[in-house]
């Protein structure tokens, strides 16, 4: 099908018309009603159960003693979330997702402000939040922006998850669960278009089970033209994407209690960077063609060479299960994933100095290749008053990168025009190149015991994980040649190993069927590594987090209201912090060779940081068909002032400590949603609106200059909406859906990422402008 409605005013008028459509008095059957059966007329509406896998087994969210937020498939669809990057507006207040600087091809993922201080866009460095899809860890920031397949639920596990999920989960984990094959013939398909040249389509096809094998095929394509046009002819616009992929899942039950679940996926993720705007000038001269842009623009001030950043990923997963005895299951998860990612960023031409005839518009290129293999085994058991889980994991990853940076434009003498510097990418020098092999071993166990007390109200849980990581590799190119350190020419090697033990203890109590409380102590860590922007490539150790958490989970008014609360406090140790150092070299006589060039060095800061906060989630059913929900997070992260331990321009060490700011971490964040459904003649009307707001966050963790405070991104409120006419019968067993959606419905604009220097002024990235779309879906 082909539908073309790209005029925003027209789409808004249709949204308004559908929202104002009269609703009939009848409502949907309550959750759990069997299709085709009449619902009990006396049954009161209630909030449905939410099943999570936060403890590596299926449990009810309200009885799981972990702070977890969940977006199910309906919640993701209503917010038009097609990739993890679409969660950047703060639908889950404790979770922050943002591009790595301007690159949509790599995502920063942050929970409770932990694990994002360093540049994880490097082979030997990791983030502090683990992202899992169907039990498989995704090891790189690159590739996380790819389109999501048929997601059943997205769980955000808050706080350290080191015992069950292991390394790089000191802030928490994002656990994505996709829909399994049903074994019954069925098709779900949708296609649509939107503003900014957007289009998309998806197909999910279930085949009937044959010889015990159920197969499901998924295909998806989603694309959008750029939100800022590049005026140079033939160049990719800024903030563009084109994502497509295919997924196959097969579930086989060869015998009673035995299952084999295989999945294959392949994806193409094309994107371009955000546009970097100068909102206040600095002391350096600016060309007439570089206006200060205090509002979000649709056309870049200067056209520059720009091409798609392309990520190509594919992977295999095999999950084997055996119900060895009643209450005893063995599980094996094997996975292989391969990724190749190019990254092209030329979005900063508006924030550069003017020198007549001078070169500007720095083009940053980085190629990234990764191959990972993992094998996990689990023993999951249940006995009277005891649930337990034990397992082991082996993970191997091989990563290589290669980075280039050079100017692409040259000013004329008047500063009114620019010419393109002839480019042959293969002839450009390589700034740096490195390769790393990571091996990680882990063994873990966790058990929950419910002692024989009255009403079985008490539950005690303990867990422990041992991990051993090693990283081996080298930085083999710096400035397009083998590194030379004090006259010694050789690749800079890394061969480091670390071991960790992460315990967890939880005490949970049931104050009734609808009120549960818990106290939890847990730890987690982010792996050590090396900085490939360094000349020495010196190793740094893991950083760790230890947190106490108190929480309650409750339901009220005959399950028409649900309130979950959590408060936490803990410590943050051996924090990995980057500092600028002088590019110091010595001659054969040991004399210092002065240079103005700098490197970026990483070390584990002394002292101990502090983190504490509070979170609340509320859902209410005030009337049939109407659901109100909201969430709030207060995050207070303090990192002790730290001195730069590396030599500066004159070869000395500055001993005065400097302030360290938490990055990508708003102090206050809130979100809310209204969902409504009602039967109308011929179908069902469903309407959704959500809003998210935060207090703004810091993009850099130290002051730009001595005596100058780091600026913080602006606060803003972003509203999304969707209205749909669903369940419209077109033939026996087949229905269609017509929906209109909008992201940033009110066209809010704010500079969420802000940087400042005296020379270049204040600049940053604006949030995305309003986009609208129309979708048509089919189901049978």
Task: Describe the protein.
The chain has 780 residues and is mainly β. 2% of the residues lie in helices and 56% in strands. It is built from 2 helices and 44 strands. The chain has a 22-stranded antiparallel barrel. It has a 5-stranded mixed beta sheet with strand order 3-8-9-6-7. A 3-stranded antiparallel beta sheet has the order 15-43-42, with no helix packed on it. The protein is globular, with a radius of gyration of 27 Å. The two termini are 17 Å apart. The model is unreliable at 1-41 (pLDDT under 50).
Topology:
Layout (H helix, E strand, L loop, with lengths): L7 H12 L31 E2 L6 E2 L7 E5 H6 L16 E6 L2 E9 L17 E5 L2 E3 L12 E8 L13 E7 L7 E9 L3 E13 L2 E12 L16 E15 L2 E14 L5 E4 L28 E17 L2 E18 L13 E25 L2 E26 L6 E3 L11 E18 L8 E21 L5 E2 L2 E2 L2 E21 L2 E12 L2 E2 L8 E2 L2 E14 L4 E13 L2 E7 L2 E2 L5 E2 L4 E7 L3 E16 L2 E17 L15 E3 L7 E13 L2 E12 L21 E16 L2 E10 L7 E7 L3 E6 L4 E9 L1
Parallel strand pairs: 6-9
Antiparallel strand pairs: 1-2, 3-8, 4-5, 6-7, 8-9, 10-11, 10-44, 11-12, 12-13, 13-14, 14-16, 15-43, 16-17, 17-18, 18-19, 19-20, 19-21, 21-22, 22-25, 23-24, 25-26, 26-29, 27-28, 29-30, 30-35, 31-34, 32-33, 35-36, 36-37, 36-38, 38-39, 39-40, 40-41, 41-44, 42-43
| CA-CA gap between termini | 17 Å
Q: Compute the average pLDDT.
A: 89
The portion of residues forming beta strands comes to: over 45%
Q: What would you call the structural class? A: mainly beta
What is the strand tally? 44
How much helix, percentage-wise, in residues? Answer: under 10%
What is the count of helical runs? 2
Radius of gyration: 27 Å
- Main sheet characteristics: 22 strands, antiparallel, barrel
Shape category: globular
